[in-house]
Amino acid sequence: MKHYLKAAVVAVLFAAAALSPAQAGVIVGTTDTNPNHSNSAPFGSLQSRFFYQQVYDDSAFSGALNINQLTFYNKVLPGGSPVPGPFQIYLQTTAQQVGAIAVNFPDVSGATLVFDGAIPALSGGRLDFSLSQSYNYDPSLGNLLLIVRDFNFGSPASPMFLDSDTTNTVTSSRQYAGPNGPSGNLKTGLITGFNDVVAVPEPSSWAIAIFGLAGIGFLAYRRRSKFSPAAA
Predict the structure, then answer these.
(1) Parent domain of 32
(2) Which tens digit of pLDDT belongs to each residue from 135-169?
(3) Which of 98, 44, 35, 113 is nearest to 72 (CA)?
């Protein structure tokens, strides 16, 4: 019986690890909890903008990262409607610094196009972009630059506001209103997740957990029955 009990316990521990909502990746920025500081650009309200840039300091990354998902957060001022798109998103290693993004209009010729399409649905306070092209970022080579290009002009009736960084030391952004010259304004950057993927348990993990719990329950019942005092 000891062997059965041991196997059941191992099954439960294994399944618990598989079922835990573990997250991986990097989240850059410290969330500003003031709702008035949330940012509707670039996905919640276009404001006739053509381009949006955001730079992330290399110190925010502990090492090289193969980026295949970008996440932006809608938790401080939840709700609203994102602009449907289409959008293009580019990533690039850059010498540009946080708080000092160039006013020149963005040049995407040296950047990697990682997303091209309609915006994903807002779910659970998250806007998750699954990238069509992963990007290998090495922080030892410089900071990381995000470029967003929109092809719409207008805003939804109820704009969506995304969480922004409160420090302006690890990330900052700049918006551009026209294609032919320096323009735009410097702002705090959006809190951004890189590969911040919430694990979804596989059906087999649930099956193992149920089997293990059932096994422990059965063995406990057998043990209790075996040592129950006889009726008088």
Answers:
(1) 23-198
(2) 999 999 999 999 999 877 666 778 899 999 998 88
(3) 44
